[in-house]
Design a protein that fits this description.
mainly alpha
Length: 182
């Protein structure tokens, strides 16, 4: 016997007694037959659900890649001139008419609603209106803006607070400024 070799012990509980193992074997032909009967009885329902799922998934991808993403890309291209003027503090032109055939943030937010770029145009339009003294319009734009990520919700609350302070709603402004801290 080799050094370190030890014979394994047989555990009597793990041994199969008689034909117990044979009793747990499932008759595959029985399962196949019952599955065929179930399918033939519910064929229309199964095919209808499968077809509906395929249409639903196909419709989602068609909407996303053939409609939504191209519109978002187009809106981003349209925002170029307005963003340029926004950076130059030309808020009136950025909001309404940046020139060169480009729409302003207000028009982009209306024409491309439902896109990320249209949503971002609402944010820019709120800031432009705030700087121009159009506080109610600024409030309308910022309230319809859907902020996402870590920074933009904080920025939205800050702008909301600025608008409320300009409208002499100091308690609302305080609440807006405190909201990101909570």
């Amino acid at each position: 016997m080799a050094k370190g070799y030890r014979a394994s012990k047989v555990n009597p509980q793990n041994t199969v007694r008689g034909n117990q193992a044979d009793e747990t074997i499932i008759d595959l032909s029985e399962v196949k037959t019952s599955a065929e009967h179930y399918y033939s009885a519910h064929k229309n329902t199964i095919l209808g659900i499968a077809g509906g799922l395929i249409l639903l998934v196909g419709g989602y991808f068609a909407y996303k890649f053939l409609y939504s993403e191209p519109r978002n890309k187009e809106a981003l291209e349209q925002m170029y001139q307005a963003e340029f003027l926004f950076e130059k503090d030309s808020f009136e032109m950025a909001l309404n008419n940046p020139g060169a055939g480009f729409p302003g943030f207000k028009e982009i937010s209306e024409n491309y609603s439902g896109t990320d770029a249209g949503n971002l145009a609402k944010y820019y339009a709120a800031i432009c209106n705030l700087k121009l003294g159009n506080y109610q319009e600024a409030k309308d734009f910022i309230s319809s803006y859907k902020a996402s990520g870590n920074i933009m919700p904080i920025m939205k609350e800050g702008i909301t607070g600025d608008i409320q302070a300009e409208m002499n709603d100091f308690e609302g402004a305080r609440d807006s400024y405190k909201k990101p801290v909570k």
